Amino acid sequence: MKNRTKQISDENTDDALFAQLLSTGEESTLGNYRRMAIKRFGEKSAAVVLLDYKIAAFGANDPVLADEKQAVELLENINLLTVRS
């Protein structure tokens, strides 16, 4: 998987931020990971609950800096651990 980045500007500063793009072409944000997790695990899954908690604290547009494969594996493992319990 290619590591793609997109330069985005922050309206409050002159600094340029670099956000990774997901394999879907969307920005790598908590909100976009939440949408993917709902499709994969369901609305009431542990992965979605975790993302909801993070979104409440940081916002849906907060960038996810982890590699996409690692982030998806983490969400899968969180979901598997709670299903087995």
3D architecture notes:
The protein has a domain at 28-84. It is mainly alpha-helical and 85 residues long. It is globular, with a radius of gyration of 14 Å. The protein starts with a strand and ends with a helix. Residues 7-16 have low confidence and may be disordered. It has a two-stranded antiparallel ribbon. It has helices at 30-41, 46-58, 68-84, and strands at 5-9, 16-20. The protein is built from 3 helices and 2 strands, in the order ββααα.
Short description:
The protein has a domain at about 30-85. Helix content is about 50%, strand content about 10%. It has 3 helices and 2 strands, in the order ββααα.
The strand count comes to: 2
How do the helices and strands follow one another from N- to C-terminus?
Answer: EEHHH
Provide the residue-averaged pLDDT: 82
How would you characterize the largest beta sheet?
2 strands, antiparallel
Helix-residue proportion? 40-55%
> What amount of the residues lies in strands?
5-15%
Q: Could you give the order of strands across the largest sheet?
A: 1-2
**Overall geometry:** globular
Alpha-carbon distance between the two ends: 33 Å
How many helix segments?
3
Class per helix and strand makeup: mainly alpha
Query: Poorly predicted ranges (pLDDT <50, ≥5 residues)?
Result: 7-16
